[in-house]
Amino acid sequence: MAQDPAIRTVAVVLFEGFTVLDAYGPIQAFSSCRWRQADGTQRRFFQTMTLGVRPGPVRSGDGPATVVDHAFDDAPPWDILVVPGGFGTRALVNDAAFLDRLGRASGRSAVTSTVCTGSALLARTGRLDGRPATSNKIAWDWVVQQGPRVRWQRRARWVDDGDMLTSSGVSAGIDMILALIARLNGRDMAVAAARNMEYVWNEDASNDPFA
Amino acid sequence: MAQDPAIRTVAVVLFEGFTVLDAYGPIQAFSSCRWRQADGTQRRFFQTMTLGVRPGPVRSGDGPATVVDHAFDDAPPWDILVVPGGFGTRALVNDAAFLDRLGRASGRSAVTSTVCTGSALLARTGRLDGRPATSNKIAWDWVVQQGPRVRWQRRARWVDDGDMLTSSGVSAGIDMILALIARLNGRDMAVAAARNMEYVWNEDASNDPFA
Question: What is the Cα gyration radius of chain A?
């Protein structure tokens, strides 16, 4: 399906202890962009692959393990990077080899997006320096310490800074990705994706019920 | 962690072509029931394992593969069963061996819950006969054909029939599981879990924005 130039590729970063909904909320939103065609088949607009230090299963912080499809350095090209958060980020902010891979992966992405404490990881690569960003509210004090030169915005469901999008905690990643879909493919497609997910989309980035 | 009698075990059924948020929304809700204890460690109240026809990776309908921890017949005991939906259900409603395993797994569960077209699978086992249930709205006509003796309720975010809970599409599974958590562990814990997920919980089963 990669042959269709209208299909964008999403690469989701996985690591031990990632939070499942941080990754799977965005994956579901992208996957829900599909329309039934006249011949009965589904037309898709995004495809997802998973990235990690090495291929194979990675245990989430919530029980189940997800398979990493490609090592960072051996992956085919992609358009959009998604970086989840989770308790695993507590160790990774001090893992120079991981941060180097993540920073280069972000450099190869047309758009980089983070969910929850994923912004702490991206901050540690330096790629958020001087830019507005947000994160999870419960871990806020720890996150902002990871990026002293980031212009952190506490009250925000998500922050859209063009090629860098950062969301608040867990479920906020769904709202952010639907907004990205609206920008890339039009609001009608984002609304259709939300309906396919039976999800009540919070369309207003400044409406943060948890700040 | 299984030694703590206050921890319930959740078994999530996986199959080729499952919808990721149908499974991971409930997994996240259960996993978000955690409190920080005086010694700084997290206390959890639910643990999750995955069930399938055989152990190993199963490809979702949305790209990534999740690892099945246990085959149906070799799994340790559990309390709560979660059955997701997805395009994979279209073949499985005619797979007698799978339906036999699913029906017996439901029989071993204190509570069986389905998300989206997962209710079509459970209906095909006969375990919903004579009972109220709901499902995804987009696939509604197909689902109800799978259970002619089920008392289908179209307008419902979810239906709670005691030991059988069925939800509407995809995201509705999160609302249903938070309601189950409230019943089992008190509303305060469900509210805390929703806050940990930064999720705006729809607490009213009759409030179905997509019917």
Answer: 16
Instruction: Please report the ipTM that was assigned to this predicted complex.
Output: 0.96
CB B84, CB B18: distance < 8 Å: yes
Which chain B residue's Cα is nearest to A42?
B87
Strand segments, DSSP code E, in chain B are 8-13, 34-36, 42-44, 46-52, 56-59, 65-68, 70-71, 80-83, 111-114, 132-133, 151-152, 158-160, 164-167
Residues of A (162-201) whose Cβ lies below 8 Å from B: 168-172, 195-200
Query: What pTM value is reported for the model?
Result: 0.96
Asked if B12's CB is within 8 angstroms of A19's CB, the reply is no
Residue A36: Cβ-neighbour burial (10 angstroms; 0-12, 13-18, 19+)? exposed
pLDDT digits (tens, 9 = 90+) for A5-53: 689 999 999 999 999 999 999 999 999 999 888 888 889 999 999 999 9
Q: Which CATH number fits domain B8-196: 3.40.50.880, 3.40.50.300, 3.40.190.10, 3.40.50.150?
A: 3.40.50.880
A65 in reach of chain B (CB within 8 A): yes
Tokens in use for A155?
């009250």
DSSP letters for B55-90:
SEEEE-TTS-EEEE-EEGGGPPP-SEEEE--STTHH
